[in-house]
Amino acid sequence: MNVRLLALAGVVVCAVALPLTVASAGQVGDARRSAVRTPERGEGTVPRADAKDHSAVPAPSRSPLLLGLGLATAARCGPELTSPDGVEAQTCVLTQGPETWARTYYRNATGRALDAVLSFMGPGGRTVQMRCAVGADDEPGMCETPRERSRGGPDAYTAVTEFATRDGDGPLLLRSGSNSEVSTGS
């Protein structure tokens, strides 16, 4: 019975230690990255005015690494809309660092394949259009434009997505915009 108890205790220890070991190891390829960057000798230091020995202290700076999380992404989205035919969509303008782009999230419950056109309009009359094939599988999907260098604030950009049948003979099923007003009812 002692052997069984020791074997069970060993399994429990391994079950607890293995996840902790994996979690502390980090992601593959992160060996060169750390959350805190140590400055090179003489880099980012300024002499202290109140110190008699004029010792150097680190100058305040922004960390180029955000604890491995990457840059924050700002999103300006219109409301989630649903057409009577069963198309659901929400269109957003996204900004991350110096880049801006448009993205639409959709779900097609019509039972037939659709075409979507995502138009991304920016300052100076600049427009980018993406044609997206929307499958008939009733699964959530996404379509986005290529990223471009921002030429103004996030409010200078607008995105609109239009959904229609593939044959082109049918009506427009849904139009979703990034700056649409939310309807409160009347």
Can you characterise this structure?
By secondary structure, this protein is mainly β. Helix content is 13%, strand content 38%. About 21% of the residues have low confidence.
Which characteristics define this entry?
186 residues, mainly beta, 6-stranded antiparallel beta sheet, 4-stranded antiparallel beta sheet, 1 helix, 12 strands, elongated
Structural class: mainly beta
Could you tell me the number of beta strands?
12
Report how far apart the termini are: 76 Å
SSE order, one letter for each helix or strand: HEEEEEEEEEEEE
Uncertain runs: 29-51, 54-69
The shape is elongated
Mean pLDDT, nearest integer? 76
Radius of gyration: 27 Å
Instruction: Indicate the percent of residues in helices.
Output: 10-25%
Instruction: Figure out the total of helices.
Output: 1
- What fraction strand? 35-45%
> What profile does the largest beta sheet have?
6 strands, antiparallel
Task: Give the gist of this structure.
The chain is mainly β and 186 residues long.
Q: How are the SSEs ordered, and which strands pair?
A:
Blueprint lengths: L1 H24 L19 E3 L8 E3 L14 E5 L3 E2 L4 E10 L2 E10 L5 E8 L5 E8 L5 E5 L3 E2 L8 E8 L6 E6 L9
Antiparallel strand pairs: 1-2, 3-5, 4-5, 5-6, 6-9, 6-10, 7-8, 7-11, 11-12
